[in-house]
Amino acid sequence: MAKQTFLQGAIVLIIAGMITRFLGFINRIVVARLMGEEGVGLYMMALPTLFLVMTLTQLGLPVAISKRVAEADAVGDQKKVKRILVVSLMITSITSILFTVVMVLGAPFIATTLLTDERTLLPLIAISPIVPITAVSAVLRGYFQGKQNMKPQSFAQVIEQLVRITCVALFINLLLPYGVEYAAAGAMISVILGELASLLFMVYSFKRKKPVKIRTNFFSFLKSSKETMKELFSIALPSTGSRMIGSISNFLEPILVAQSLAIAGVTTTLATKQYGELTGYVLPLLYLPTFITHSLAIALVPNISEAEAKNNRKLIHYRIHQSIRISFASGAIATVVLTLFSVQILTYMYGTGNASSFIMLMAPFYMLLYIQSPLQAALQALDLAKPAMWNSFIGATVKFAVLFVLASNPKFGIMGVAIAMCVGVVLITLLHLITLQKAIHYYIPFKDICKMILLLLLTFGAGNFLKNMYEAFPSNIILFLLTLIILVIVYIIFLIFLRFLTREELQQVPFLQKWL
Questions:
Q1: CB count, 10 Å around CB of 49?
Q2: In 59-77, which ranges are continuous DSSP H helix?
Q3: What does the DSSP 8-state code read for residue 364?
């Protein structure tokens, strides 16, 4: 099974992430065009419940599996690798069945009482079969990550999106005549089919090499895996704390938003529409660069763990800083583009520019989100998952407090929700940086902070100049895309000029190797 270096593995995941994000946006455009803002609102209000159940089911095992498999593989202990897989599959099988049943039985209460919109009942029930599918997928992802082979999960991500896009229009059109809630349920069904196709591919990839025969002596391995279970949970439980806080936060957010806006005098239908604009239109754009940061985070865990085992503090600092540099480079261009061209992007994608005020407010603050994932991964790899969990808890608590105070005020309304989200992102990222500084004396060099600021200013200036040129001509999507391409080229020149990316890093990009 082919292994990749830190950057090679990250690049494989980044390429796959780029493809899946592009396909994901096509999927969102289709959903938005077919279901409208109200349908998207129902769809987005049901998803946090699913994410919470999935987090409870997986118990943070993917990170633990990745770390323990890497350790066992390093010493050639294939029996331990099998014990890890056996224990993980048994745990996730039990929890997935349990929480799927709870989700289905609790759906009426969640829909009518918590989300205050009984139309979310059908989407909640429709999405429930995905829980056991994602549970098994999580185990296999952790295994492949531990083996430092990022290709299977990368291909699986692309397959998932292709199947989802293929099915979503069919099911929405088929069920829309029965009501918008049926259409939202149809969108959920397409998500299930995509995840199922992704799982089948990873199972095929696992069996093709036959590295471990899971079914052979399954129960005997399970009986002798008490110590392995302890080792997994020593990582999984602290790691899942942060994810639990995030999932509970996402679960409670639409509930608190609905209740707060109701206090402000906003009707249920309007609240659902506004929340759909914010979470269905704006947040996907703001989260666009995170496929890069998430890829870096996945590759960072085993790499830092290995460096920590060898007490190589210098390499740990270098990998963290390398991840921050690359993450910031990916986020800076997105921030400038979204800030300057928010109306055009929303109009061309969704047919309306109503949510542009959200983007212009949130984009500058969400730059800190782009370095948050690598920081979180570094903390987990350094056995600092508990402080990371508390950072997430503090951030979520402050966010909810700000959200309730502002969103329940008619002067702010839904804009208060956007402000609260920004506060949460900034606070958590800063707390992660402070934790790393205290634990390993890590800090971002002042020279690089100056480079980051200069990169932003130069890019914003160039972008503003190109925007003025674009607006001098009649609106045209081809001209708009050409403007963005020119801005990206100028941005790359700035990156090279400021030496934001090193020659060694660029040489690991496949199509650049022969040129450098």
A1: 26
A2: 61-74
A3: T
* DSSP type of residue 215: S
Side chain identity at 469, as an amino acid letter? M
Token pair 């890093």 in the structure block, residue: 505
User: SS in 3 state form for 47-94?
Assistant: HHHHHHHHHHHHCCHHHHHHHHHHHHHHCCCHHHHHHHHHHHHHHHHH
How far apart are alpha carbons 119 and 324 in whole angstroms? 42
Do 340 and 309 form a contact (C-beta atoms < 8 A)? no
For 300, phi then psi, to 5°, come to -75, -35
pLDDT per residue of the chain (516 residues) written in tens, 0 to 9: 566 677 777 888 888 888 887 887 787 777 777 777 777 777 777 777 777 777 777 777 787 888 787 777 767 777 778 888 888 888 888 888 888 888 888 888 888 877 777 777 888 888 788 888 888 888 888 888 878 788 888 899 889 888 888 888 888 888 888 877 788 888 888 888 988 999 999 888 888 766 666 666 666 666 656 777 777 777 777 777 777 777 677 778 888 888 888 888 777 677 777 787 788 788 888 888 888 888 888 888 878 877 776 778 888 898 898 889 888 988 899 999 999 998 888 888 877 777 888 888 999 999 999 999 899 888 887 878 788 888 988 998 999 999 989 988 888 888 888 899 999 999 999 999 999 999 998 988 888 889 999 999 999 999 999 999 988 888 788 899 999 999 999 998 998 888 877 767 666 665 555 555
- What residue type is assigned to position 302 of the chain? P
Nearest to 300 by CA among 283, 325, 331: 325
The domain segmentation of the chain, as residue ranges, is: 6-444
Residue where the block lists tokens 């430092």: 148
